[in-house]
Please model this.
Amino acid sequence: AHEQTQRAPSRSQAKEFTVDEIRALEAFLFNGDEPEEYRVLTGAVLLLVSVRGRFADLENALEVVHDEETLTIKMRKTKSSHMDKSRLPIAMVGPRYLFGAGCWYTEWCRIREEADILEEGWPLMPSLVSEEWAPSPIGNNDFNTALQKVCQKLNFVDVPERSSHSCKATLLTLASVKGSVSYTHLPLPTNR
Model:
């Protein structure tokens, strides 16, 4: 067993975003000169950061409900829910405002509306088919590849270590380093 442990490749965690990187992502979302597909993806990234989610959570979202301060994603299923319904999926809740000056969520909704990405029946992150939005979800690999392209455009470090898991890790890491994030008053789960 000891030899197998030494031969097994070491697992690495996805690199979380810094506060400055989140601000850069928010500014990128607001920049109308950037390609629409990257701005739509950036909004999905910020949504995952807000609710401490990963790609599978984006795939299983039924709807986003919001008020002035919070976003709530109602889920079809989550990693801890079971097919036998012994554990029901929990809603994912996060802050509507992150670290930038404006409301990224309102801007993301506006961009989606202009792109004719419908609310009803469409995934939160649809796929592009022949340069047109389609009502099918983007794949995990395509999502992570596009996320890394945005990170490259913004000159982030450690781009190959960025994935949808970076979104989940971001606020969890900030909370563990700085203590509870005061503006949310929301419980942060400890699993990564």
